[in-house]
Design goal:
Largest sheet: 3 strands, antiparallel
Structural class: mainly alpha
Number of strands: 3
Distance between the termini: 43 Å
Number of helices: 15
Protein backbone atom coordinates (compact mmCIF):
# COMPACT_ATOMS: atom_id res chain seq x y z
CA UNK A 1 0.00 0.00 0.00
CA UNK A 2 1.26 3.43 -0.94
CA UNK A 3 0.01 6.77 0.31
CA UNK A 4 0.02 9.18 -2.65
CA UNK A 5 -1.52 12.19 -1.02
CA UNK A 6 -4.50 13.40 0.90
CA UNK A 7 -7.46 11.11 0.23
CA UNK A 8 -5.58 8.85 -2.21
CA UNK A 9 -4.38 5.38 -1.31
CA UNK A 10 -2.75 3.08 -3.84
CA UNK A 11 -3.84 -0.58 -3.45
CA UNK A 12 -2.52 -3.27 -5.79
CA UNK A 13 -1.30 -0.71 -8.34
CA UNK A 14 -4.63 1.19 -8.42
CA UNK A 15 -6.11 3.75 -6.11
CA UNK A 16 -9.37 3.01 -4.31
CA UNK A 17 -11.04 5.68 -6.40
CA UNK A 18 -10.00 3.97 -9.62
CA UNK A 19 -11.21 0.60 -8.36
CA UNK A 20 -14.52 2.10 -7.31
CA UNK A 21 -14.90 3.79 -10.69
CA UNK A 22 -14.10 0.54 -12.57
CA UNK A 23 -16.58 -1.42 -10.45
CA UNK A 24 -19.29 1.20 -10.99
CA UNK A 25 -18.58 1.25 -14.72
CA UNK A 26 -18.82 -2.56 -14.84
CA UNK A 27 -22.20 -2.53 -13.07
CA UNK A 28 -23.56 0.20 -15.36
CA UNK A 29 -22.41 -1.64 -18.49
CA UNK A 30 -24.03 -4.87 -17.27
CA UNK A 31 -27.30 -3.01 -16.67
CA UNK A 32 -27.14 -1.42 -20.13
CA UNK A 33 -26.46 -4.81 -21.70
CA UNK A 34 -29.45 -6.35 -19.89
CA UNK A 35 -31.74 -3.49 -20.91
CA UNK A 36 -30.55 -3.84 -24.52
CA UNK A 37 -30.62 -7.63 -24.86
CA UNK A 38 -33.57 -8.61 -22.68
CA UNK A 39 -36.38 -7.27 -24.95
CA UNK A 40 -35.13 -9.51 -27.75
CA UNK A 41 -34.74 -12.45 -25.36
CA UNK A 42 -38.27 -11.90 -24.03
CA UNK A 43 -39.67 -11.89 -27.58
CA UNK A 44 -37.69 -15.03 -28.45
CA UNK A 45 -38.79 -17.12 -25.47
CA UNK A 46 -42.39 -15.91 -25.82
CA UNK A 47 -42.48 -16.82 -29.52
CA UNK A 48 -41.25 -20.33 -28.61
CA UNK A 49 -44.02 -20.74 -26.02
CA UNK A 50 -47.51 -22.00 -26.69
CA UNK A 51 -50.35 -19.55 -27.02
CA UNK A 52 -52.28 -21.13 -24.16
CA UNK A 53 -49.25 -20.85 -21.88
CA UNK A 54 -48.85 -17.13 -22.59
CA UNK A 55 -52.48 -16.47 -21.73
CA UNK A 56 -51.75 -17.73 -18.24
CA UNK A 57 -48.74 -15.44 -17.81
CA UNK A 58 -45.66 -14.05 -19.64
CA UNK A 59 -42.47 -16.05 -20.19
CA UNK A 60 -39.64 -14.05 -18.62
CA UNK A 61 -36.57 -16.30 -18.88
CA UNK A 62 -37.52 -19.61 -20.54
CA UNK A 63 -40.29 -20.71 -22.92
CA UNK A 64 -43.45 -22.00 -21.32
CA UNK A 65 -44.45 -25.28 -22.99
CA UNK A 66 -41.80 -25.07 -25.74
CA UNK A 67 -43.19 -25.14 -29.30
CA UNK A 68 -42.06 -24.17 -32.82
CA UNK A 69 -45.66 -23.93 -34.04
CA UNK A 70 -45.67 -20.12 -34.34
CA UNK A 71 -42.40 -20.11 -36.27
CA UNK A 72 -43.72 -22.83 -38.60
CA UNK A 73 -46.85 -20.77 -39.21
CA UNK A 74 -44.83 -17.67 -40.12
CA UNK A 75 -42.53 -19.58 -42.48
CA UNK A 76 -45.53 -21.27 -44.09
CA UNK A 77 -47.18 -17.99 -45.08
CA UNK A 78 -46.29 -17.18 -48.70
CA UNK A 79 -47.00 -13.45 -48.23
CA UNK A 80 -44.44 -13.10 -45.43
CA UNK A 81 -41.84 -15.07 -47.38
CA UNK A 82 -42.36 -12.82 -50.41
CA UNK A 83 -42.15 -9.75 -48.18
CA UNK A 84 -38.88 -11.10 -46.77
CA UNK A 85 -37.52 -11.51 -50.30
CA UNK A 86 -38.56 -7.95 -51.26
CA UNK A 87 -36.89 -6.60 -48.11
CA UNK A 88 -33.70 -8.64 -48.51
CA UNK A 89 -33.23 -7.84 -52.20
CA UNK A 90 -33.95 -4.16 -51.61
CA UNK A 91 -31.49 -4.02 -48.72
CA UNK A 92 -28.71 -5.72 -50.68
CA UNK A 93 -29.13 -3.58 -53.82
CA UNK A 94 -29.55 -0.23 -52.06
CA UNK A 95 -26.68 -0.84 -49.61
CA UNK A 96 -24.20 -1.80 -52.33
CA UNK A 97 -25.15 0.88 -54.87
CA UNK A 98 -25.79 3.64 -52.33
CA UNK A 99 -22.45 3.19 -50.55
CA UNK A 100 -20.53 3.09 -53.85
CA UNK A 101 -22.36 6.07 -55.32
CA UNK A 102 -22.10 8.16 -52.13
CA UNK A 103 -18.42 7.26 -51.75
CA UNK A 104 -17.72 8.49 -55.29
CA UNK A 105 -19.60 11.72 -54.70
CA UNK A 106 -17.75 12.26 -51.41
CA UNK A 107 -14.40 11.64 -53.12
CA UNK A 108 -15.12 14.36 -55.66
CA UNK A 109 -16.39 16.61 -52.87
CA UNK A 110 -13.17 16.12 -50.88
CA UNK A 111 -10.92 17.31 -53.73
CA UNK A 112 -9.78 20.94 -53.28
CA UNK A 113 -9.96 21.60 -57.04
CA UNK A 114 -13.68 20.76 -57.34
CA UNK A 115 -15.47 23.59 -59.14
CA UNK A 116 -18.46 25.41 -57.54
CA UNK A 117 -17.79 23.50 -54.33
CA UNK A 118 -19.54 26.13 -52.24
CA UNK A 119 -22.74 25.48 -54.16
CA UNK A 120 -22.60 21.76 -53.31
CA UNK A 121 -21.93 22.62 -49.67
CA UNK A 122 -25.00 24.85 -49.48
CA UNK A 123 -27.23 22.31 -51.22
CA UNK A 124 -25.88 19.44 -49.11
CA UNK A 125 -26.28 21.12 -45.72
CA UNK A 126 -29.71 22.45 -46.69
CA UNK A 127 -30.87 18.94 -47.54
CA UNK A 128 -29.82 17.76 -44.08
CA UNK A 129 -32.27 20.06 -42.30
CA UNK A 130 -34.96 20.95 -44.85
CA UNK A 131 -37.12 18.52 -46.83
CA UNK A 132 -40.03 18.96 -49.21
CA UNK A 133 -42.43 17.06 -46.98
CA UNK A 134 -44.61 14.02 -47.56
CA UNK A 135 -47.06 15.46 -50.11
CA UNK A 136 -44.43 16.96 -52.48
CA UNK A 137 -42.44 13.73 -52.18
CA UNK A 138 -45.54 11.70 -53.07
CA UNK A 139 -46.24 13.95 -56.06
CA UNK A 140 -42.63 13.59 -57.26
CA UNK A 141 -42.68 9.80 -56.88
CA UNK A 142 -45.96 9.64 -58.80
CA UNK A 143 -44.69 11.99 -61.54
CA UNK A 144 -41.58 9.86 -62.01
CA UNK A 145 -43.73 6.77 -62.48
CA UNK A 146 -42.28 5.02 -59.43
CA UNK A 147 -45.50 4.75 -57.44
CA UNK A 148 -46.49 1.16 -56.68
CA UNK A 149 -43.45 -0.30 -58.44
CA UNK A 150 -40.41 -2.14 -57.10
CA UNK A 151 -38.19 0.75 -58.24
CA UNK A 152 -39.67 3.04 -55.59
CA UNK A 153 -37.58 1.02 -53.13
CA UNK A 154 -34.37 1.49 -55.12
CA UNK A 155 -34.04 4.78 -57.00
CA UNK A 156 -34.97 7.29 -54.23
CA UNK A 157 -32.51 5.59 -51.87
CA UNK A 158 -29.45 5.49 -54.13
CA UNK A 159 -27.85 8.53 -52.49
CA UNK A 160 -26.92 7.90 -48.87
CA UNK A 161 -27.44 11.47 -47.73
CA UNK A 162 -25.07 14.30 -46.88
CA UNK A 163 -24.41 12.85 -43.41
CA UNK A 164 -22.53 10.00 -45.04
CA UNK A 165 -20.76 12.42 -47.36
CA UNK A 166 -19.37 14.28 -44.34
CA UNK A 167 -18.05 11.04 -42.83
CA UNK A 168 -16.49 9.92 -46.12
CA UNK A 169 -15.04 13.38 -46.66
CA UNK A 170 -13.29 13.38 -43.28
CA UNK A 171 -11.82 9.95 -44.01
CA UNK A 172 -10.57 10.93 -47.48
CA UNK A 173 -8.89 14.08 -46.20
CA UNK A 174 -7.01 11.95 -43.64
CA UNK A 175 -5.30 10.05 -46.47
CA UNK A 176 -1.77 11.25 -47.35
CA UNK A 177 -1.73 13.75 -50.21
CA UNK A 178 1.46 12.13 -51.52
CA UNK A 179 -0.56 9.04 -52.52
CA UNK A 180 -2.70 11.08 -54.89
CA UNK A 181 0.25 13.04 -56.26
CA UNK A 182 2.32 9.92 -57.02
CA UNK A 183 -0.68 8.21 -58.62
CA UNK A 184 -1.24 11.18 -60.93
CA UNK A 185 2.46 11.23 -61.84
CA UNK A 186 2.06 7.60 -62.91
CA UNK A 187 -0.81 8.62 -65.19
CA UNK A 188 -3.73 7.39 -63.08
CA UNK A 189 -7.08 9.08 -63.61
CA UNK A 190 -9.56 10.07 -60.92
CA UNK A 191 -11.64 6.90 -61.17
CA UNK A 192 -8.55 4.69 -61.00
CA UNK A 193 -7.28 6.58 -57.96
CA UNK A 194 -10.67 6.18 -56.33
CA UNK A 195 -11.07 2.47 -57.07
CA UNK A 196 -7.47 1.30 -56.52
CA UNK A 197 -6.25 3.62 -53.75
CA UNK A 198 -9.10 5.29 -51.92
CA UNK A 199 -11.51 2.36 -51.67
CA UNK A 200 -8.96 -0.18 -50.31
CA UNK A 201 -7.81 2.35 -47.70
CA UNK A 202 -11.39 3.18 -46.70
CA UNK A 203 -12.70 -0.32 -45.97
CA UNK A 204 -13.42 0.37 -42.27
CA UNK A 205 -15.55 3.41 -43.11
CA UNK A 206 -17.26 1.60 -45.97
CA UNK A 207 -18.10 -1.31 -43.67
CA UNK A 208 -19.41 0.92 -40.90
CA UNK A 209 -21.64 2.96 -43.20
CA UNK A 210 -22.80 -0.21 -44.95
CA UNK A 211 -24.06 -1.51 -41.61
CA UNK A 212 -25.87 1.77 -40.88
CA UNK A 213 -27.43 1.81 -44.36
CA UNK A 214 -28.46 -1.84 -44.32
CA UNK A 215 -30.14 -1.57 -40.92
CA UNK A 216 -31.97 1.61 -41.98
CA UNK A 217 -33.24 0.08 -45.22
CA UNK A 218 -34.14 -3.25 -43.58
CA UNK A 219 -36.25 -1.53 -40.91
CA UNK A 220 -38.00 0.89 -43.27
CA UNK A 221 -41.76 0.48 -43.65
CA UNK A 222 -42.67 4.08 -44.51
CA UNK A 223 -41.93 3.62 -48.21
CA UNK A 224 -44.36 0.70 -48.38
CA UNK A 225 -46.97 2.58 -46.39
CA UNK A 226 -46.93 5.75 -48.51
CA UNK A 227 -45.81 4.71 -52.00
CA UNK A 228 -47.25 1.24 -52.67
CA UNK A 229 -50.63 -0.45 -52.79
CA UNK A 230 -49.90 -3.89 -54.21
CA UNK A 231 -49.74 -6.83 -51.82
CA UNK A 232 -46.82 -8.17 -53.86
CA UNK A 233 -44.67 -5.14 -52.93
CA UNK A 234 -45.11 -5.22 -49.17
CA UNK A 235 -41.93 -5.39 -47.10
CA UNK A 236 -41.32 -7.56 -44.07
CA UNK A 237 -41.40 -4.70 -41.58
CA UNK A 238 -44.71 -3.47 -42.98
CA UNK A 239 -46.17 -6.96 -42.67
CA UNK A 240 -45.03 -7.08 -39.03
CA UNK A 241 -46.59 -3.66 -38.45
CA UNK A 242 -49.90 -5.02 -39.71
CA UNK A 243 -49.58 -8.09 -37.51
CA UNK A 244 -49.00 -5.93 -34.47
CA UNK A 245 -51.80 -3.50 -35.26
CA UNK A 246 -54.49 -5.99 -36.09
CA UNK A 247 -55.27 -9.51 -34.96
CA UNK A 248 -57.40 -9.75 -38.08
CA UNK A 249 -54.23 -9.78 -40.15
CA UNK A 250 -53.10 -12.85 -38.21
CA UNK A 251 -56.43 -14.53 -38.86
CA UNK A 252 -56.13 -13.76 -42.58
CA UNK A 253 -52.62 -15.22 -42.60
CA UNK A 254 -53.88 -18.41 -40.96
CA UNK A 255 -56.70 -18.75 -43.49
CA UNK A 256 -54.28 -18.15 -46.37
CA UNK A 257 -51.90 -20.83 -45.13
CA UNK A 258 -54.74 -23.29 -44.54
CA UNK A 259 -56.02 -22.81 -48.08
CA UNK A 260 -52.62 -23.08 -49.78
CA UNK A 261 -51.07 -26.12 -48.13
CA UNK A 262 -52.90 -29.24 -46.94
CA UNK A 263 -50.08 -30.37 -44.61
CA UNK A 264 -49.84 -26.95 -43.00
CA UNK A 265 -53.62 -26.82 -42.74
CA UNK A 266 -53.58 -30.06 -40.77
CA UNK A 267 -50.77 -28.71 -38.55
CA UNK A 268 -52.75 -25.56 -37.80
CA UNK A 269 -55.87 -27.56 -37.08
CA UNK A 270 -53.96 -29.61 -34.53
CA UNK A 271 -52.21 -26.61 -32.99
CA UNK A 272 -55.41 -24.60 -32.70
CA UNK A 273 -57.09 -27.47 -30.93
CA UNK A 274 -54.20 -27.74 -28.48
CA UNK A 275 -53.72 -23.95 -28.13
CA UNK A 276 -50.17 -23.89 -29.50
CA UNK A 277 -50.66 -20.84 -31.72
CA UNK A 278 -52.07 -17.43 -30.84
CA UNK A 279 -51.98 -13.99 -32.44
CA UNK A 280 -49.41 -12.88 -29.89
CA UNK A 281 -46.99 -15.76 -30.47
CA UNK A 282 -47.17 -15.25 -34.25
CA UNK A 283 -46.49 -11.52 -33.88
CA UNK A 284 -43.45 -12.20 -31.67
CA UNK A 285 -42.18 -14.97 -33.96
CA UNK A 286 -42.37 -12.64 -36.98
CA UNK A 287 -40.52 -9.89 -35.06
CA UNK A 288 -37.73 -12.23 -33.98
CA UNK A 289 -37.33 -13.73 -37.46
CA UNK A 290 -37.11 -10.23 -38.98
CA UNK A 291 -34.37 -9.28 -36.48
CA UNK A 292 -32.13 -12.31 -37.06
CA UNK A 293 -30.44 -11.18 -40.36
CA UNK A 294 -29.28 -7.88 -38.86
CA UNK A 295 -28.10 -9.62 -35.67
CA UNK A 296 -26.08 -12.08 -37.76
CA UNK A 297 -24.56 -9.29 -39.87
CA UNK A 298 -23.11 -7.27 -36.97
CA UNK A 299 -20.40 -9.76 -35.83
CA UNK A 300 -18.94 -9.95 -39.36
CA UNK A 301 -18.67 -6.16 -39.58
CA UNK A 302 -17.57 -5.65 -35.98
CA UNK A 303 -13.82 -5.60 -36.69
CA UNK A 304 -14.34 -2.67 -39.10
CA UNK A 305 -17.18 -1.01 -37.24
CA UNK A 306 -15.49 0.91 -34.41
CA UNK A 307 -12.41 1.77 -36.46
CA UNK A 308 -14.58 2.99 -39.34
CA UNK A 309 -16.66 5.28 -37.15
CA UNK A 310 -13.55 6.77 -35.54
CA UNK A 311 -11.74 7.28 -38.84
CA UNK A 312 -14.78 8.93 -40.38
CA UNK A 313 -15.41 11.23 -37.46
CA UNK A 314 -11.93 12.73 -36.99
CA UNK A 315 -10.40 14.92 -39.62
CA UNK A 316 -6.77 14.22 -40.28
Amino acid sequence: MKVLGVGRVMVGGKSRGEKLFNASLFVVMILIMIVTVYPFWFSLVSSLSTGSALTRGPAFLWPQQFSFASWQTVFADSHIMKAAWITASRTAIVTAVSIFYTAMFAYAFSRPYLKIKKFYVVVGFTSMYVSGGLIPSFMLINWLGLYDTYWVYIIPSLFGGFWNVIIFNANYKALPVSLFESAKLDGAGEFRIFSQIVVPLSKPVLAALSVFTAVNIWNDYGTTLYYTQSLDLQTLQYMILKLIQSNRAVENMLSTVQGSNLAVSQLLANTEESGLVSAKTIELAAMVIASIPMIIMYPFAQKFFVKGVLLGSVKG
